[in-house]
Amino acid sequence: MVLNKALTLIFTADREVIFISMTSLSMALTSTILSTIPALILGTVLSIKNFHGKSIIIIFLNSLMAMPTVVIGLLIYSLISRSGPLGNFGLLFTPWAIIIGQSILSFPIIASLIYSALSKTAVELPETLETLGAGGTRKLYMIFRESKTAVLSAILSGFGRVIGEVGVSMMLGGNIRWFTRTITTTIALETSKGEFELALALGIILIFISFTVNALLHWGVNRNV
Amino acid sequence: MEKILFILFIIIISSFCYAEGQIENQSDNQTSTQQRLRLATTTSTENTGLLDVLIPAFTNRTGIKVDVIAVGTGKAITLGENGDVDIIMVHARSREDSFVSDGYGVNRRNLMHNDFVILGPPDDPAGISSVKDAAKAFKKIQLTKSSFISRGDDSGTNTKEKELWNTAGVIPAGKWYKEAGQGMGAVITMANDMQGYTLSDRGTYLALRDKIDLAVLVEGDPKLFNPYGVIAVNPAIHDGINYEDAMRLIAFLTSGEGQSIIKNFQKNGEKLFYPDVIK
User: Fold this and answer.
1) How many CB atoms are closer than 10 A to CB B33?
2) C-alpha distance from B55 to closest chain A C-alpha (Å)
3) Residue of chain A whose Cα is closest to the Cα of B235
4) Phi then psi for B28, rounded to 5 degrees?
């Protein structure tokens, strides 16, 4: 009964359901891309360079992976609230606030997983490469080539964390209809109202989105190997 | 590989364009250059669906887009104090007055009212259905150690509930007293599942009535009166407060049109709110 109504909402392409799904998808993709760039740099540096304090950074990154979304939401809230230091930008309760929060959320996961992916090949590969006489840039390129799948799955883990999170979106986005309402905040709201149809429909869409994104990347990586 | 990244890129761009288009569609007027108006309000006005008719009517008339942030009264007041919203619509008179007297809010107006009701299981194990006085009913719930689900979230309803415990001379604590920390709809659903008692505004109860089997056990006590007020955030405290549009919203809500929308708003054939300016 509830499931029937949920499927009807999906297959009739209900305007609000589509809008909410698109909002979630664009927020999550944007923030994943934004955090991937610095995470890639940090992960690479950590895996190929040895320096003082490296293990501290790694421990710190790994602990940040367990940081509750609401804590990140709270920290950013205190920064971008009108009474906070960055208040003048008026970022709170806009899509940008969500993107900032989600970027910070996915950064440690991606950086940490890229580090473990690269450090494995970085140990095995260089000896082979040096005997072949490969230079620095060439070496880096080879390391990335070898661990392409692992790097992509690191990015996907980051995406997985942000597309399904509710704390940051709710606190920083404010769950504003036709603006910052995402799949997860709608599920929370509709459940609290006792309206399970829309909540379930969006839950199904969420699984579908993450399935599609994963399938696309998986297919893309394997085809080129 | 490049192909996949390209596809992802297209998805992102198109979803952004779609989202933008949808936002624009929400209003007939071209208001993209205009500032948005931020309204913090209680879950009761959102959960009942009242704002879904009030806000579009306002946007139609003025072209001003309103961002509705539905939280408890306590949080709404904090958002106002921090300057994160431009206007608040809440229901806890004592706290509204101190919000204004502390200089955070200006131009408070009475908007509408309804009343609180005490809900409980139809078999009424605490035997409060014959009690007229809400505080005495609370006392009986405590004496019989019947389950009571509290909002526990500093909302307007939670404030009223604490006042009633105070009047009853009870400090609620113990296994029977459960602080849920959630919105009204969620708390009613919980009370229904646990067959416990709870205090609710009538509006949210009526909106959920078909989905639950809790009954209204105590109503009509003057202590259960539930007035809503609307207050503009003082633009002198923080920069960037959209005071002008906040005042236009207050003017609309207290106008003949706004008040008649409130008066005619019905859910399941029952009136949920009574206008206080033009009756």
Assistant:
1) 5
2) 11
3) A82
4) -75, -30
Q: What is the DSSP string of B144-184?
A: TT--EEE--S--HHHHHHHHHHHHHT----STTEEE--S-H
Question: Which residue do the tokens 């919980």 mark?
Answer: B190
Domains of chain B (ranges, CATH numbers): 33-114+227-275 (3.40.190.10), 115-225 (3.40.190.10)
A173 exposure class (CB count in 10 Å sphere: 0-12, 13-18, 19+) = buried
A174 → chain B, closest CA residue: B69
| Residue recorded with tokens 């421990």 | A59
Residues of A numbered 65-124 whose beta carbons fall under 8 angstroms of chain B's beta carbons: which are they?
A: 81-84, 87-88, 90, 92-93, 95
Q: What are the pLDDT digits (tens) for B158-185? A: 999 999 999 999 999 999 999 998 888 8
- ipTM, 2 decimals? 0.71
Residue where the block lists tokens 């440690």: A108
pLDDT digits over B20-34, tens only? 655 555 444 444 446
Q: Kindly state the tokens that stand for A105.
A: 């959320």
**What range defines the domain where residue A98 resides?**
2-224
Q: What is the pTM of this model?
A: 0.79
Count of domains observed in chain A: 1
CATH code of A141's domain = 1.10.3720.10
